[in-house]
Fold these 3 entries.
Entry 1:
Amino acid sequence: MRGSIPLQATMKEIIKANDNLYQLVRTIREDQLKNPNMEDLKKYFYCDTLLRKQGMLYFCRIIEEIEYEEITK
């Protein structure tokens, strides 16, 4: 199929932290950056959340929990 994107190329890893789900966009080791502007990096990667763990930076998008009402017949 010419011009199609394989499914695995479009899927992103989902992680859970602080009782929230996040779509992981990018990980970077903290020591690779010197005095970075985190707000600029979040904009660059189109992320709204930055998580840190064991020397790694996780650029993520929060997956909003929706409220719904079950419809019964």
Note: Residues 38-44 form the longest helix (7 residues).
Entry 2:
Amino acid sequence: MPRMSSTNFSATTAEIGIVGAGPVGLCLANLLADAKIPTVLLEAEPSINLDLRASTFHPPTLDMLETIGVTPRLLERGLVCPSWQIRRHPSGERAVFDMSVLEHDTKHPYRLQCEQWKLSEALLDRLRVHTDVDIRFGTRFIRLDQREDYVAAEIETTAGRETLRVAYLIGCDGARSAVREAVGLDFSGVTYPETTILATTLFPFEDHLEGLSNVTYCWKADGNFSLLKVPGRWRVSIYPREDLSIEAQMTPDAIEASLQDVVPRAEPYEVLEQRPYRVHMRIVPDYRVGRVLLAGDAAHVNSPSGGMGLNGGLHDVFELADTLASIVRGGGTDLLDRYTRRRRIVAQEEILAQADRNRARMRERDPERRRAMLQELQQICADRDRLRAYLRRSSMFEGLARAAAIA
């Protein structure tokens, strides 16, 4: 690993350095602050990112976040979804997954639809009262140098560059992680061929599609789409035609046509926001290189189908915070390898694999295969024991239990 040219260090102000102040990094900083571990949190952007990103919180994640007191604020600003569904459009034939069967597994037997930036705001507000955390927005991570007993991280602000010395450095800086690149970890996997278009609108789809759930995945004759409601608006994921360029399908007329395909109406739709995005399925071979560790999208990315990406990242840092606290209090550094053993297998075999299956199911085009799939799902939904087992897995309880059982 290349050495830094500078050997001038700033005063050692933190035991842990975190790169990335998205919800995963902010959550980790809160957990470490509660453990009274001095931490510095670095974020290249000047403030919290308000872009259209994840919005689904699963029951065990809400249980975890309640331990640090932020779940009530999410509930105030989000939308409780007691069920979700897979639906044929326009017939309305559907399988409805009633989350109440999880009432003995969780304090929150529902999905919560709440934009991830609202979690970031709640976490940042909570973090500001902690004196053990140094929060630095507008600070870009440049590179690092690992030594036997510390990591030197070169950072840059408008005032210039400095080198911060920490015992451990955690990359929570997303899919394009600079920390991952700095330690040379491969990010192998695939990029799916399609581009998805996300659009939001105030139109009340629930008043026009009978029995619609707040989280709904839909098959239509020539493709599929999804409808996810957040407070005050619907998020529509449009899976565009493969015979036209994405530029052609991002025009106002093309997006209007896609929305008219969901609910035809005489008036045009008011589209509040729109953006295209590509979907990836990738994972690093190890979450640790020496004193540098990764969490969230820096370590693994997956299809958003099923809403597991953000949740998986938050689960990472609850595990990682416990691990780091144990080490700071005198535990062996071999615990860092346990972090990879526990979280990587869950990401690969539970989160990525399940999201990939969800994507494949919704992209099925054969009408007979769709009919058979829907009938099987309806049978699951009609059997309370089978439904609970299905939802324990899709809601990520089983992945957490599997991780906890690994020594």
Note: Residues 335-362 form the longest helix (28 residues).
Entry 3:
Amino acid sequence: MHEVLKGIRVVEVAQYVFVPAATAVLAEWGAEIIKVEHPRTGDAYRGLRRTGPLAISGPVNFAIEHANRGKRSVGIDIASPGGREVLDLLVRSADVFMTNLLPASRARLRIEVGDLRAVNPRIVYARGTGLGERGPERNRGGFDYATFWARGGSALGATPPGAGAPAPMPSGAYGDSTGGLVLAGGVAAALLSRERTGEPCVVDLSLLGLGMWSMASAIAGSLMQGEPWRAMQRVPATNALAGTYRTRDGRWIVLVCLQGFHQWPGFCRCVGHPEWIDDPRFATAESFTESTPACAALLDALFAGATLAEWRGILAGFDGVWEVAQDALEVARDPQAVANGYVADVDAGDGTTFQLVASPVQFDEQPPRPRRAPQAGEHTEEVLLELGMDWDRIAALKASGAIA
């Protein structure tokens, strides 16, 4: 693994997934991440017992592992005088500080930009928020299901007409995981800027802004056309070769042939129906477009006549883009995912391993190698000793409750 951020130290004061996912990505890029957790309660996300349909049980807390891989954890009550002493030591030694605390909490704990720059003028300061740092709702919190998915436009953007409810988010931590990758990129850019200019940046990303970026094409089109985006149809009104079709065994094949008319002859030959090429309904670009419903009916019947396994063989020679709609287990075992190292084995530290999806950016063609997440406060003493604190002071801080 090429550790492009080796030598960079990041201090994280954050909970749940949005910002912790960003530092998890930075850890896979080689940065040293020190996660600050409360010495008695830890990250509140450690108490999660279910995400969507899946229980969090067994020896591995997959939710914590996803967002906290590769970090060291220190238990510090940063609201206490002793805890603040320790936090200042950490900040003084760090390149980046990252948080998702709300403005009121940041002010109360004295971890705003000015507070930390007084300790370390060169520190890059990164915030992940629900609704942004400005505006009347800056003090409101947010989760990705509500703020990124629903308020950001994706929920209705994915909901077909006539549905009884908005489309649910397809995965736990869906927006948070994407946001973590984006925020990690912002921090990397800020570090490059500091290297070149000597000046540190403040980096901001909100779930609302991220949700709008994810829907940016739809929002731009809606603004220009004066009407809201509607969910994409199973078969577009003008191109049957950009539709989704069900196989005989109930699976779905997604065709994305954006130049449908030009790719029609090759498709027809591939599926064994060359007579469709000269069918007057599909013989010109105009008639192909106008006859989309008729073409879609042909393809519905066609795909329903064979199983997915059979279609994989038939379509192997087609040069248009098509894919199979896969579930979470299938994509984890996808030969392309395996070949590219997108799912990684992680050493649990007890002689066993488990698997995580690696962060997707690779350097020098080497997939990241995730390391396990820490237990709450696991590295408190280790980190404080590295910072130059002696055992007597560590003992006194423990006795006061300032550290774990």
Note: The chain has two domains: 9-215+335-400, 240-325.
